[in-house]
Amino acid sequence: MLDRRVHFVIGKGGVGKTTVAAALALILARRGRRTLAVETEGHGRLAAILGAGSTGPQPVAVAPGLSVAAVDGRAALEEYLELVIPVRRLLRTIFASRIYQYFVAAAPGLKELMTVGKIWYEATREEAGQRAWDAVVVDAPATGHALQVLRMPQAARDTFGAGLVQREAARIVGFLRDPRATAVHLVTLAEEMPVSEALEAHAELTGPLGLPLGWVIVNRLHRRRFSPALLEALRAAAVAAPGEERALLAAVADRAQEEEGWAAINAQHLAALRAALPAAPFVELPFLFVEEFDRAALEQLAALLEAAIAPARARARRRS
Amino acid sequence: MTLAELVAGHRVVIAAGSGGVGKTTVAASIALWGALGGRRTVVLTIDPARRLAASLGLASLDAEPRDIPAAVFAAQGLRPRGTLAAMMLDQKGAWDALVERHAPAEARARILANPFYQHLSQTFAGSYEYVAIEQLCALAESGRWDLIVVDTPPTRHALDFLEAPRRLDDFLDRRIIRWFVRPYFSAGWSALRAVNRTAGFLLRRLEQATGLSALAEISDFFANMSGLFDNFHERIERATAILRGAETAFVVVTSPEEQVLGDAEYLSSKMAALAMPLRGVVMNRVHAEFRAAGRGRSGGDVGPEDVARVAAALDRALPGRAEEAAALARNFADYQALARGESLRIEHFAAGLPRRVPLVRVPNFPRDVHDLASLAAMHVHLFGAPAGSPGPPG
Prior knowledge:
The complex is a heterodimer.
Chain A: E1 6-11, H1 17-30, E2 35-39, H2 45-50, E3 60-63, E4 66-70, H3 73-84, H4 88-96, H5 98-106, H6 110-124, E5 126-127, E6 130-131, E7 135-142, H7 143-159, H8 164-177, E8 182-189, H9 192-206, E9 213-221, H10 228-240, H11 243-276, E10 282-286, H12 295-319
Parallel strand pairs in A: 1-7, 1-8, 2-4, 2-7, 8-9, 9-10
Antiparallel strand pairs in A: 3-4, 5-6
Helix pairs in contact in A: 1-12, 3-6, 6-7, 7-8, 10-11
Chain B: H1 3-8, E1 12-16, H2 23-36, E2 40-45, H3 50-55, E3 66-67, H4 70-75, E4 83-88, H5 94-102, H6 105-113, H7 115-123, H8 127-142, E5 147-151, H9 159-171, H10 174-180, H11 183-187, H12 189-195, H13 197-210, H14 215-244, E6 248-254, H15 258-273, E7 278-286, H16 307-317, H17 322-351, E8 359-363, H18 372-377, H19 379-383
Parallel strand pairs in B: 1-5, 1-6, 2-4, 2-5, 6-7, 7-8
Antiparallel strand pairs in B: 3-4
Helix pairs in contact in B: 8-9, 8-14, 12-13, 16-17
């Protein structure tokens, strides 16, 4: 799986896509693969986590073998037109015209197409006879929009008549569907809404889109179990404890009950997800109790991800 | 001002914020509060979890508000003095509904079958947000409701919802449309080229570059919809007037997570610029921080240095169960760290809010909220403790 050239990390808003994408990029770079981490929504958060001040379309090196860049459909279109129409003065006129602005806004899916086109271009671009990047990790938009982006090359190939872009769209589709080149990782939480959205995305990815699924990454799992008997004993002890300790012990019991509650919810939805996707390679990541998601937290997540993908890889090898 | 006073004092409450923070649940809980307090309430919801939808009587997609039967309340021990209706927006059929409502009958079928329209209705960002606002206007203008609570679509950026009317207005700029409906467009490139060399050349290059050959379709689409667009501008003005009106309150729903809170901060700062009134903040999924009473200058913090004290107290409380006591102590310390980080971020966020904007904290319940009773259980956090609270309005 780690040998793929493009890794799309997708999932519902708020499930931790960006941090997982950052951890994956870090792992790849440390294995000696020249890696480009790409953000697609212009938040600058992926760049911030990886230690870059800001990002634009130009890759910024953040660590040995690791760069980060922002891909924006509109900017990618202008870059592309510069390749097709190499007359600077004419380009300036075009970009400034309202017809162009209108066209970009109205042309259905054009920005999505250019986003995925730019990612493909970076993944296959060569410099001085060798590939510019060994791996591209994409922090994709939230599921619905991410699927739209991934759908566009196919739509372009099928809808638009023969021509330059029809040919390029067909090449992009071929690349995206190649299980040696591409992996789409699905990040989710083991809760009701994220799981149902993940299942819908999975059906779309493996069905109509025909894209190679990577890992199903179940993030932020609560795991600690505290039995009702233990909690009962603790609560009884709290009531009997001297004044100062009473509130403290009650709070300890509250937190244990909270953790137990989430662990039960997570276990239930994780089991349902695994049952629904029996063949998918699962990666489970624990909830990180940190004050803020800083560099140390990223390192911790990367270590956990690295450990978690080892068994997933071993299972995948056994199957093949 | 409290959130209870805020909801009591406005007819339209809009829950804004980025996706995945529990907006739908908070909106439903606010609506339930209004209904319990005696108001004729409707909640416009977007994408509720299946079980919540079922408990709101939204088992199937429905464009009409449906009253929740009194028996459903009674079964959960609730006695509303008003009524609660719920309706759900159909994300996929949003544009179709607009066309059916506003397009002249003879043009409808042509519009719906137009390939450009089909692409547009699926991909144009903002159209869905616009439909939600349009629906809000219809509810507000019907005069049937004392309280309308709106759950906003899960947008990439929370701001998208607020900017949707203006963006759609720009998009449907009539001067541009007029340009596109000129006869030479549908006639094709050569005709266009004869009229306007630059435009013809430009569009031909764009078409080559992008593979779009939809020019005739675009032209045909606008020709069919031109009557509809005249209406749009006026409707957008009315929608904007409602959004900015004195009867409307925006409540930002957020969680204390770093990224989410960053989005909420940006949203709050932009609302003033858009003249959309931010009136309240619901901080959802907060982890409680334990602060011991009367511990002097340290302000009651229980920090990492207190772990030994906590462990000792647990050893005394659970004699002979050292392993479990250690696990409990570790779990407590972890939750304290989480809560401390959240406290700092919330404090920083609150400092940036305009004065008199209430911020309420809702704990991170370890359960799926999926029935009226669990929605009602949020009220103590949203609107104050039952004892000594001003009580439901009405």
